[in-house]
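Deliverable D5.2: sample structural annotation.
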Amino acid sequence: MARVLLVIGDAAEVLDTFYPLFRIREDGHEVVVAGPAARTYALVLHEKPEGWDITRETAGYHLKADVAFKDVRPDEYQGLVISGGRAPEYIRYDPDLMRVTRSFFGRDLPVACVCHGIEVLTSAGVIRNRRVTTVAKCQYDAEQGGAVYEDKEVVVDGNLVCARTWHDNAAWMREYMKLLNAVK
């Protein structure tokens, strides 16, 4: 079975994180959680209340990272999942996360990205000329990274599977699992 790296940080979105964590394990794959440091992170819930223009953030569950980005050896993994929420706003500056992310694209291995996770891919410079989707407020991030934005629940382009938000989790993981389960 595959070994998958799940990328988080403080303020990663709960459903963007736990849904893939459990879905990937359900198929018998190992999931290793990675963060800026090997410590416990505070996750958050994001929901756009009726009448609001932006999402409201509330405290959610906690999740411990098994490994720090600097200690990740990408060749030990066959898949990558980048959670959304606000975490990507700051983890995208981590040079080790950029090294790890580029490695998966260089080896054409399955990468799943949801919501603000696109900020990590843009910073890594790996989405130029690719079709992607993301939460609408990150459309410019995707386009500034050279990608073509599509407002769909899931977009698959080669090894990359993107979704807009946790509302699209079923379609997102259904497509990602096809790629992951095909890895030899």
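Annotation notes: The chain has one domain: 3-181. The longest helix spans residues 14-26.
The annotation will be released with the project's public dataset once the embargo ends.
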